[in-house]
From TrEMBL:
It is found in: Cell membrane. The keyword Translocase does not apply. It comes from Exobacillus caeni. Its main location: membrane. This is histidine kinase. It comes from the Bacteria. The gene is walK.
C-alpha cells in the first residue's frame, strides 16, 4: 500500500486538514501486469499468421506463382491466415467493447428449449454426417430472457469447440434441465479433454491447452472468454468438467422466467 498526503489550507493560511490517500499498489500493479501480458499475447497472436504469410508470399514471389500445383495451395494458406486474423481482431474488438461496458443487450423472452433445438439443427445440418448429435432436452417450454444474437454466439463457440476437439464419429450430447430457479445447459463431447489443473483457465483470454492445435483449427483462444462475459451479462455462470483423453462438458446457467407444459415431440 502506498500513502500520499495532501495538506488543505488557504495560501499561507492555517492548515485546515489533511487528506491521506491509500493506493492499493498490489491491485494496480496486477492490472498493469495483466495489461502488459495482454499486449504481448496479442502481438504474438498477430505475428504468427503474419510471419507464415510472409514466407508463403516470398515463395510465391520467388517463382512459386508459376507452379500450377503449388500456387493455389500457397494462396489458400495466406487466405486462411488472413481469415483467422480478421476473426482475432473482431474477437478483440468485441472483448474490448464488453470491457468498456459499451454494449447493450437486446433482451427478449423466449422458450430456450425450442431455441436450443433450432441451434442444434443448424449444426446437425452441416456436421450431422461426421458426428452423432444426441439431445436430452426437456419436453417443456422453459422461458428465459436472452439476447438471441449474443446467446447464439455463446452456443456457437461452445459447440464449435466440441466439434473441433473431438474425433470424427464422436457423440456430442446436448442437455438442458432446471435446477431451482435456473436453467442449466450443457454440451458434452468425447474429445481430447482438458487436463484437470487447467480446467478453469480455458475461460481466460488466449489460454489454450495446445496452442499449435488450436491455431491449426483456426482458433483465436478468445471464444470461451467471450462466452464467459456474455453468460455473466445474462446473469448466469459458466464452467467446465473434463476427463483428459475422455471428453469435456461445458455447462452454463440462465435465470428461468417461467415453465410451461408443451406438446413438443
Ligand atoms: P480456441 O479458439 O483455442 O478454441 P477457446 O477460448 O474457444 O479458444 O478455448 C480455449 C481452449 O480451451 C482451447 O484452445 C482448448 O485447449 C480448450 N477447449 C475448449 N473447449 C474444449 C473442448 N470441448 N474439448 C477440449 N478442449 C477444449
Amino acid at each position: 500500500i502506498r500513502v500520499s498526503f495532501s495538506v488543505i489550507n488557504k495560501e499561507d493560511g492555517p492548515i485546515n486538514g489533511l487528506i491521506a490517500v491509500l493506493h492499493d499498489v498490489t491491485e494496480q500493479e496486477q492490472i498493469e501486469q495483466e495489461r502488459r501480458e495482454f499486449v504481448v499475447n496479442v502481438s504474438h497472436e498477430l505475428r504468427t499468421p503474419l510471419t507464415t504469410m510472409r514466407s508463403y508470399l516470398e515463395a510465391l514471389h520467388d517463382g512459386a506463382w508459376q507452379d500450377p500445383e503449388i500456387a493455389p495451395r500457397f494462396l489458400e494458406v495466406t487466405q486462411t491466415e488472413t481469415e483467422r486474423m480478421i476473426r482475432l481482431v473482431n474477437d478483440l474488438l468485441q472483448l474490448s467493447k464488453m470491457d468498456k461496458k459499451e454494449y447493450r443487450l437486446e433482451f427478449q423472452k423466449l422458450d430456450f428449449v425450442a431455441y436450443y433445438h433450432h441451434i442444434i439443427d443448424r449444426f446437425e445440418m452441416s456436421k450431422g454426417e461426421q458426428f452423432d448429435f444426441k439431445r436430452e432436452l426437456p419436453n417443456k417450454e422453459i422461458y428465459t430472457t436472452i439476447d438471441k444474437d449474443k446467446m447464439t454466439q455463446v452456443l456457437d463457440n461452445i459447440i464449435s469447440n466440441a466439434i473441433k476437439y473431438s474425433p470424427e464419429g464422436g457423440t456430442i450430447t446436448f442437455r438442458a434441465w432446471p435446477v431451482g430457479k435456473r436453467l442449466r445447459i450443457s454440451v458434452s463431447d468425447e474429445g481430447v479433454g482438458i487436463p484437470k489443473n487447467n480446467i478453469d483457465k480455458i475461460f481466460e483470454r488466449f489460454y489454450r491447452v495446445d496452442k499449435a492445435r488450436s491455431r491449426q483449427l483456426g482458433g483465436t483462444g478468445l471464444g470461451l472468454a467471450i462466452a464467459k462475459e456474455m453468460v455473466h451479462a445474462h446473469g448466469g455462470d459458466i464452467w467446465a468438467e473434463s476427463k483428459w483423453g475422455k471428453g469435456t462438458t461445458i455447462y452454463f446457467t440462465l435465470p428461468i422466467k417461467g415453465i410451461r407444459e408443451s406438446d413438443r415431440r
